[in-house]
């Protein structure tokens, strides 16, 4: 792995793709853990177009060693150093016949255990009994997300489309995107590969058109403590 190249891409473009982080056997182990999960809790969402597990690492603790392999931990250490820990995790299963899509947006909220009135944090939302709040910009600028792809993913089955460099522009409302100056890139990721991105990167996902599944484990990382009494809802150290 060319760590310097990936660090440069994250800094300049807001994302990078690294192939071959998980073997086909390791992907199969991850999928086996997921298939054995009890899906009756509120953190599981199932529709025709989407199956999702919120608080993924908490709901299926047995998957943690299968996710945090030596190879993945090495990638995190070499690209970001020490001190980062998972603070949010979601599993997405986009079926092959899915018409579900997501329009352009930034990931502007973090997940916390309880709501509290803290200067600089807001507005608040609640989704499936999970509190989310928009933190000060510097927290979002430091955080990063790893998306572990359990299927070959391209533009036909929901690979992310992104606006390179948009993470450097603060809060960037999608309705203000000037396509005469911005460009769009589709982030193809093979099975077992990962995409690393900054939360402030503008990104979107299209409908599926090739009948292929798109299963992704989405994990957000931070190296920061929240001001009391706020606490990360999924802190894993």
Automatic annotation (TrEMBL):
Keywords: Dioxygenase, Oxidoreductase
MF term (GO), any: 2-oxoglutarate-dependent dioxygenase activity
InterPro entries the record matches: Phytyl_CoA_dOase-like (IPR008775)
Signal peptide: none
Protein name as catalogued: Phytanoyl-CoA dioxygenase family protein
Cofactor: Fe(2+)
Alphabetical list of SUPFAM superfamilies matching this protein: Clavaminate synthase-like (SSF51197)
